Amino acid sequence: MATDVARPLTEPSGAAAETAAAPRPAPRIARDKAILAVEGLIKRYEIGEPVLNGVGFAFGAGEAVSLIGANGSGKSTLLHCCTRLIEPSGGRIRLLGDEVTPLPPRRLRRLRARVGLVFQKHNLVGRLSVLTNVLHGAQARQSGPGSWCQAFATKTAREEALHCLEQVGLADLAARRADRLSGGQSQRVAIARALMQRPELLMADEPVASLDPKAGQEVMALFAELARARGLTLFFTTHHLEHALDFSERVLALKGGRLALDATASGLRADDLQSLYV
């Protein structure tokens, strides 16, 4: 469940103590009402301390939530545990109304089909067209050749894929091979592919880490705006503190395998978060 974080991340002294404001704890939400609820999450590998050690939080429909922390803090591990792309070692995860850990493979696949995943590596098929890559997003909810290649897709499916490309500003590149795209264009196609899933939740693991600052800012702004326009819940990891503050309503932070912060973004500044990286 969401944890109380009512103290500053660093202890101010002197005049700073009079003006520094504590992060505002995020509102609590009941576990059975949450889109994603994580309770006592543990992930342990064979050697060393747990990567995640008792992490808990919950958020509701329509929220935009960012997850920050230093390299090795467990951000990607946490995100992947939520859909069991990585198996948790302990704890409970409730996603879109389902208890994730006990789900058998078929039901787990159906659950994952309701989650649009965007990763740092765009995972496009380079020799195929942009339109075909977007159509692949439909594989999460349907089978058959219609979702493999644009030549076999129905008119309705092609129109939907083109609409997704229009939303990311790349409809004019539908026929281009994916390996001829820039990094920013490739990530926009990956976002369009995720939208093609018709997801209820968008999850992104450092979606702009491989892009230059200008392209990263543009893609992150587009990603957040599309989530808002579709009424989707957004959960993303990032190293960019400005992105966390600008494009989410709530900021979670990991440090030492534990949740060090769960606060509303509006009450934070980038300087307030530097201690997470010490």
Would you give an account of this structure?
The protein has 278 residues and is of the alpha/beta class. It has two domains: 1-112 and 203-215 and 234-278, 3-Layer(aba) Sandwich (Rossmann fold), CATH 3.40.50; 115-199, Rossmann fold (3-Layer(aba) Sandwich). Helices cover 28% and strands 21% of the residues. The protein has eight helices and ten strands. It has helices at 15-19, 75-82, 105-112, 130-135, 155-167, 183-196, 213-230, 241-247, and strands at 36-43, 52-59, 64-68, 90-95, 98-99, 115-119, 201-205, 233-237, 250-255, 258-264. The strands form two sheets. A six-stranded mixed sheet has the order 6-7-8-3-9-10, with helices on both faces. Strand 1 and strand 2 form a beta hairpin. Helix 5 packs across helix 6 and helix 6 (183-196) packs parallel to helix 7 (213-230). The longest helix has 18 residues, at 213-230. It is globular. Residues 1-20 have low confidence and may be disordered.
Quick structural overview:
It is built from eight helices and ten strands. It is α/β, with parallel strands linked by helices and 278 residues long. It is globular, with a radius of gyration of 19 Å.
Feature tags:
alpha/beta; single chain; 8 helices; disordered N terminus; 2 domains; Rossmann fold
**What does the largest sheet look like?**
6 strands, mixed
Count of runs of 4 or more consecutive helical residues: 8
Order of strands, main sheet, comes to 6-7-8-3-9-10
What form results from the Cα inertia axes? Answer: globular
Q: Total domains, how many?
A: 2
Terminus-to-terminus distance: 26 Å
Tally of strands = 10
Task: Give, in order, the helices and strands.
Answer: HEEEHEEHEHHHEHEHEE
CATH domain class of the largest domain: Alpha Beta
Helix percent reads 25-40%
Mean pLDDT: 85
Strand composition percent = 15-25%
CATH topology of the largest domain: Rossmann fold
User: What structural class results from the helix and strand content?
Assistant: alpha/beta
